[in-house]
Specification:
Strands 1-2-3-4 form a four-stranded antiparallel beta sheet, covered by helices on one side. It has six helices and four strands, in the order ααααββββαα. 18% of the residues are buried. The longest helix has 18 residues, at 164-181. A hairpin with a 2-residue loop joins strand 2 and strand 3 (121-125). The protein is 25% helix and 10% strand. By secondary structure, it is α+β, with helices and mostly antiparallel strands. The protein is globular. The chain has helices at residues 15-22, 35-38, 66-73, 92-96, 164-181, 186-191; strands spanning 106-110, 113-118, 121-125, 145-148.
Length: 197
């Protein structure tokens, strides 16, 4: 939908139903940490180093890993006294040879929607708050769901009840990450929003 005939400050969106359709077969869309909101293919073309037709479906990465990968490919070192530390890591070895796929846990938080992926396991939760008109689907305020992406890439079968030890371990990893990087709880942010008059 395009309002104001494309004028400044107009909004071009196509709504929730089309957003979900655009991410089929994956669940949800970019507001969320489910696969429809975060899964994006990465295509690299480098004929001098990557053989045509090379495919690697085992390596997972985050946008923060792109810079270290490009620096690694260009053989650029960033160890200067005034450089900020790079939190991502290069996945160049996996681009050059799929046998070198090496995955570490990936953590995400966006507007209260949270996730951790460790290998084939993914723990994810929604957040919903009527004050911000953030529409969610499913339980309100944070019931964790657990999926095995190897057997269930569309996140259709919640295994949290059957795999409670795995779910508990991933929740602990997520909480440690959240504290380490300083995620501000959504409830705390919402308290700062003045009430509507």
């Amino acid at each position: 939908m395009l309002s104001d005939n494309g004028a400044w400050a107009s909004s071009a969106t196509y709504g929730q139903e089309w957003a979900e359709t655009g991410n089929t077969p994956f669940r949800l869309f970019k507001l969320f940490t489910h696969e429809g909101g975060i899964r994006t293919p990465f295509i690299a073309h480098w004929p001098a180093r990557i053989a045509p037709g090379t495919e690697n479906v085992k390596q997972t990465a985050h946008v923060k890993d792109i810079l270290p990968t490009l620096l690694d490919a260009a053989e650029v070192k960033t160890a200067t006294p005034d450089a900020l530390p790079i939190t991502g890591r290069s996945f160049l070895p996996a681009l050059l040879d799929a046998k070198h796929a090496a995955n570490k846990p990936l953590f995400r938080e966006r507007m209260g929607n949270s996730a951790v992926r460790d290998g084939d396991w993914k723990l994810v939760r929604f957040y919903n708050d009527a004050r911000t008109k953030n529409v969610s689907f499913g339980p309100r305020t944070g019931a964790w769901q657990l999926f095995n992406l190897a057997s269930d890439p569309t996140e259709s079968n919640d295994l949290a009840a059957n795999e409670s030890e795995k779910a508990t371990a991933l929740v602990s990893q997520y909480i440690a990450w959240e504290k380490r990087i300083g995620v501000v709880p959504r409830e705390e942010i919402l308290q700062r929003i003045p009430p509507e008059k």
